[in-house]
TrEMBL record, chain A:
Domain (F420-non-reducing hydrogenase iron-sulfur subunit D): residue spans on this chain: 11-133
UniProt keyword annotations, A-Z: Iron, Iron-sulfur, Metal-binding, Oxidoreductase
Name of the protein: Hydrogenase iron-sulfur subunit
Protein origin, superkingdom: Archaea
Species name: Methanolobus vulcani
A Pfam family this chain is assigned to: FlpD
Molecular function in Gene Ontology: iron-sulfur cluster binding; metal ion binding; oxidoreductase activity
Length: 143, 660
């Protein structure tokens, strides 16, 4: 199945319920077409996104991982995204340690009204990852 | 096995038996995704007992099919692949609950907004992605566990913070519904900004004439306990059970015996600018009654300028002056909170917008309100500050501090209307005067507002579409304003006697202080943020806390009053029910592996966590279920229900498939 098809990246996005998940919804409502590369996992707050989840995604075969949430100052839970920011800095360091290209991990604050921004973000990251090719951490045989 | 033999107790805890329902949503999903192929694929996944396709799963027949399938197949998990959980999750949770399942055993997969609508030209890829999204959802559904919502009792009292017109309306409505209201106002009198205004648009009726009776009504209402010259200092607790500490600032006057006669004010030798009520125009004494219609009509001493001469004390016939008075505090048990903490008028002084603060005869719209007000410092005479003479040529500049990327981007919404009103009042009072309004756009929606604009034009007020580029002062303190009329492309030099800046609203310091105490979110414009811009316009994301008036964003009087009433209606729902349901998605600690290190405690913005007697204590009613603390836990003892690591990691794992 994989051989006769062109390789397409698989990107795991963690979205918070209130902002970025809503942004993805708004992108859909606006019919902003995107590559079919994204798989969204919904959490209540970006503050719930654990480095454990992110690196598991890489180990399972993700070609890129997106950490997304509300704009700073707009967190539904007051300041969860500030904690996400701190944890993200750590994740970035880890990505380097693991020898992954930094373009495989992204952070973006997207409000529920920013559908176009969400779609553009997905397009840009997918394009970058297409150029990079499959993740070096992707286990053999995984699609 | 006959249906009657199904043991309800085991329904939720037995091996997962998942029913999958794929929604075509008419052609919204079905037009792109091969839903039958997705349903067939779902049928091959572990724990899936049955799968099917519906035209509209959320319809009555779609929901009936789910309920029937739960019965027929003894399902203990339900997955619907359709639109977004943001709108439809509550519907399906209620549906499975009606069929006897715990609502948290429902899983939603979004294949419309996140799939069919964004891959409209890639039907094959969309179908494949939908299969994968369903696979991820099924893996998560297998691991779902029943959760219980918590019910907490609600104290049947309300706190309204800020007694402007919105807060007064809110307090009156709640009180009239039969509940006790504490109305806290930081100033010595209630009334807010509306008390300072002269007339109100679009009827030009006198502001205090309509507000005054309402202020008296507030004071007389038996269910309202008025706390003026008081501020909320601390708020603890959660919906239905707030503990509120209020500081009552010392007035140095006994409010119970003072009659507001004003004899003390006459005798007081200290005069300072009246910044509180008259925008710094004219003076007041160190002891003063805020304004003639103040409620309560009581004197207050400004200790920062008082010289302790005792003249007021000697003048007072009721011995009401208490120089040694100190601040006192109240502790209140509160069920619901309404925030109507008001706004500040944009201050053009620091940046000297259009020469304000540099030239005497450039004033703000609020200063004009006080000048034109019959009970104001000039008894209603509009005069130039430089020579106290009536101006012949008056100009207004619109959008000062608003609709400006360097100041505030938003429209303050009421400035066009108040400029039209003040321009009309000047023309009425001084028929020989010339009045100019320099504007970018005149914004006059709502009933009778456009007609009001027409009337201003009929009265000979001149409109120049353009924002002035330069304001300079003449030798006689007049002002030269250079503006381009963008409708004619003419550069116009206006010689004016008085220039009024139509300043907008900015979020007030006191609103920001209350916001930080209550932990309500702030929108990008600095005002308080509502839970949903359309469907929950006065709710906050915090249960039991509501926002209204200009503290939520710039708006005029009718809109503020409506929001005050809306807050009252939303808030009293809790009081009427006497109980509140708090979210079932909370964090849970496994005491066997928790080492009580306390790392999680500062993570929680709601103070739900504490270490007590060497153990982690979680106040479930305070936990909003964000899960931030769970990430911080070094031992894995803290888990967020419904978003546990095993549930999320199952989803992650099932993004991918393994092929030999």
């Amino acid at each position: 199945m994989t051989e006769n098809k062109q390789w397409e990246p698989k990107i795991v996005a963690f979205c918070c319920n209130w902002c970025s998940y809503g942004g993805a919804d708004t992108a859909g409502m606006g019919r902003f077409q995107q590559p079919a590369s994204l798989r969204i996992i919904r959490v209540m707050c970006s503050g719930r996104i654990d480095p454990l989840h992110v690196f598991n995604a890489f180990l399972e075969g993700a070609d890129a991982v997106l950490v997304t949430g509300c704009h700073l100052g707009d967190c539904h839970y007051v300041n969860g995204n500030y904690k996400t920011q701190v944890r993200y800095d750590f994740m970035e360091d880890m990505v380097k340690e693991l020898g992954l290209e930094p373009e495989r991990l992204h952070l973006s604050w997207i409000s529920a009204s920013e559908g176009e921004k969400f779609a553009n973000f997905v397009r840009e990251v997918t394009e970058q990852v297409r150029k990079l090719g499959p993740s070096p951490l992707k286990p053999e045989g995984v699609n | 096995m006959a249906q009657s033999e199904i043991n309800d107790d085991t329904k939720n805890t037995d091996e997962p038996r998942i029913g999958v329902f794929i929604c075509e949503c008419g052609v919204n999903i079905g037009g792109v995704i091969d839903c039958h192929a997705v349903a067939d694929y779902a049928g091959t996944l572990p724990d899936v007992i049955r799968s099917s396709v519906n035209k509209y799963t959320c319809s009555d027949s779609g929901q009936s099919e789910i309920k029937q399938a739960i019965k027929d197949n003894n399902l203990n998990r339900v997955l619907v692949a359709a639109c977004t959980p943001k709108t439809h999750e509550p519907i399906f949770r209620a549906c499975v609950e009606e069929a006897g399942l715990n609502p948290y055993l429902f899983e939603f997969v979004n294949i419309r907004e996140h799939c069919s609508w964004i891959h409209m030209q890639e039907k094959e890829a969309a179908t494949e992605k939908a299969c994968e999204l369903v696979r991820m959802g099924v893996s998560r559904a297998s691991k779902l566990e029943p959760l219980q919502s918590n019910e907490v009792p609600v104290t049947n009292t309300a706190l309204v913070i800020g007694a402007g017109v919105a807060g007064m309306q809110s307090a009156l409505d709640i009180a009239d519904m039969g509940y006790k209201v504490y109305l806290v106002e930081k100033n010595p009198s209630i009334g807010g900004k509306m008390a300072q205004l002269d007339k109100t648009f679009p009827t030009n009726d006198c502001s205090i004439c309509i507000l005054g009776p309402k202020m008296v009504e507030v004071a007389r209402n038996k269910n309202i306990e008025l706390m003026t010259y008081s501020e909320v200092e601390e708020v603890d607790g959660y919906v239905g059970n707030f503990k509120v500490k209020v500081r009552h600032k010392a007035r140095y006057v006994d409010v119970n015996t003072c009659t507001g006669c004003g004899l003390c004010v006459e005798k007081c030798p200290v005069e300072v600018p009246n910044t509180e009520f008259n925008e710094g125009i004219g003076t007041r004494k160190a002891i003063y009654v805020p304004f003639p219609q103040a409620v309560p009509l009581r004197a207050v001493i400004d200790k920062s300028v008082c010289i302790d001469c005792g003249a007021c004390s000697r003048a007072c016939s009721s011995n009401s002056i208490i120089m040694e008075q100190e601040d006192t505090f109240s502790e209140l048990d509160i069920g619901v909170i309404v925030v109507t903490a008001g706004f500040d008028v944009y201050d053009p002084e620091p940046t000297h917008d259009f020469g304000y603060g540099l030239y005497d005869n450039v004033i703000t719209g609020m200063e004009l309100e006080r000048l034109i007000n019959a009970s104001g410092p000039t008894m209603g005479k509009v005069v130039r500050p430089s020579d106290v003479k009536p101006p012949k040529k008056v100009g207004f500049i619109q959008c000062v501090g608003s609709r400006d990327k360097k100041r505030n981007r938003y429209c303050s919404s009421f400035c066009c209307m108040y400029a039209l009103k003040d321009a009309q009042l000047i023309r009425e009072k001084y028929p020989d005067s010339e009045v100019y309004i320099m504007y970018m756009d005149m914004r006059t929606p709502f009933r009778n507002y456009e007609e009001f604009y027409d009337r201003a034009r009929d009265m000979g007020i001149r409109f120049i579409r353009g924002k002035p580029g330069k304001v300079t002062e003449n030798e006689d303190n007049g002002l030269k304003v250079r503006v381009e009329d963008t409708l004619t492309n003419d550069i116009i030099d206006l010689d004016l006697d008085l220039l009024v800046l139509s300043v907008g609203a900015v979020s007030s310091e006191s609103t920001e202080r209350i916001r930080q105490i209550l932990k309500v979110s702030r929108a990008a414009d600095g005002f308080l943020m509502e839970a949903h811009p359309k469907l929950k316009p006065v709710d906050t994301t915090l249960d039991g806390i509501f926002i209204g008036g200009v503290s939520q964003g710039p708006k005029d009087i009718p809109y503020s009053v409506s929001q005050g009433s809306a807050c009252a209606a939303r808030a009293t729902r809790y009081l009427a029910q006497g109980k509140a349901i708090t979210e079932g998605i909370t964090v849970e600690v496994n005491p066997d592996i928790c080492v009580a290190c306390g790392i999680c405690v500062p993570m929680c913005p709601f103070q739900a966590l504490s270490i007590e007697d060497g153990k982690l204590n979680i106040i479930k009613a305070l936990c909003k279920g964000c899960g931030t603390c769970a990430v911080a836990c070094p031992t894995g003892a803290l888990q967020q229900n419904h978003f546990r690591n095993d549930q999320l990691l199952a989803q992650v794992k099932n993004v991918f498939t393994f092929e030999e």
